[in-house]
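Example S7 (structure tokens).
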């Protein structure tokens, strides 16, 4: 079974996680919400998550013993996938309504705060003062992002629900990571798999199953609201389907590396560093997709403050791993 065994390798994995979690939404932007509304895109995204998890298990992992004693861990992993999926559908809806520049800093930033604090309480590792000072800076960055969005929506009726979706998504998303870690054997990198627990790769497969299964309940709600049906999904081109599958695979690769890094860096720091994705997504939104090109005067200053807050927060969180 492939594992991460050194702190530099763990930090590198968290950096790749940050890039992956901050960039997967570009596949949704490339699909285009007019040609391929987000509920249709999201079916392929969910399947991409599960297929990537299965590939990792087959190529790099090992199943471990899976029997009655592991049923609690299996259900914990499935539940984490359900929690994530409900949150992520709302996040994708927020991206569709308000853009990456707003949805990620607010939604994923809030998830970072909740998930980091909850993970640290359950498994303390790293310098708590530096970690929580970094989290506090990220909270400020979220506030600046929301203020910038408010200036933008003063001149545009679009995206009025995006901020609400992002807040609800972030509140839910902060719960899935600690839940997932409860299914994985502690110290999986240096000790035998604990009885009743799962390897990271097996847990991630059940997580992916939870994502797909819950999608058959959650996504149809958004499809009905948009007047869509499965026939529209079946008529999608190979390019549109491949974009969704790619988006899911990118996200799942990032999660897998983050979980593997947590064995060395600790779940709280590993998750917090990975959620630097918010900064990456904001860069895509501002400089590539030009989501604020029509914003009134003053929005640029707020965006600069947001970038500074995230950069400072991530620096402190990274520094917390050294103590």
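Recovered sequence:
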């Amino acid at each position: 079974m492939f594992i991460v065994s050194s702190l530099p390798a763990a930090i590198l994995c968290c950096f790749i996680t940050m890039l992956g979690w901050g960039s997967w939404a570009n596949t949704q932007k490339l699909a285009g919400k007019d040609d391929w509304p987000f509920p249709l895109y999201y079916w392929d995204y969910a399947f991409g998550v599960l297929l990537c998890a299965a590939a990792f298990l087959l190529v790099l992992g090992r199943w471990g013993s899976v029997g009655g004693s592991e049923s609690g861990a299996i259900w914990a992993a499935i539940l984490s996938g359900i929690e994530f999926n409900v949150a992520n559908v709302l996040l994708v809806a927020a991206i569709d309504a308000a853009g990456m520049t707003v949805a990620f800093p607010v939604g994923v930033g809030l998830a970072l705060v909740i998930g980091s604090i909850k993970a640290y309480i359950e498994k303390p590792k790293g310098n708590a003062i530096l970690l929580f000072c970094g989290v506090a800076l990220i909270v400020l960055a979220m506030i600046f992002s929301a203020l910038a969005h408010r200036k933008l929506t003063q001149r545009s009726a679009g995206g009025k629900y995006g901020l609400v979706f992002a807040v609800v998504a972030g509140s839910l998303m902060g719960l899935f990571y600690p839940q997932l870690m409860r299914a994985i054997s502690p110290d999986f990198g240096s000790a035998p798999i604990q009885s009743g627990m799962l390897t990271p790769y097996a847990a991630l497969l059940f997580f992916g199953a939870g994502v797909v299964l819950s999608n058959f309940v959650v996504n149809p709600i958004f499809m009905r609201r948009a007047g869509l049906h499965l026939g529209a999904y079946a008529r999608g081109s190979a390019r549109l389907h491949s974009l969704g599958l790619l988006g899911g695979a990118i996200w799942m690769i990032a999660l897998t590396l983050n979980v593997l890094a947590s064995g060395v860096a600790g779940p709280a720091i590993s998750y917090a560093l990975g959620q630097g994705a918010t900064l990456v997504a904001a860069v895509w939104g501002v400089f590539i997709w030009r989501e604020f090109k029509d914003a009134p005067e003053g929005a640029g200053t707020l965006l600069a403050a947001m970038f500074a807050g995230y950069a400072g927060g991530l620096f402190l969180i990274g520094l917390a791993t050294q103590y």
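Notes on this example. The chain has 13 helices and no strands.
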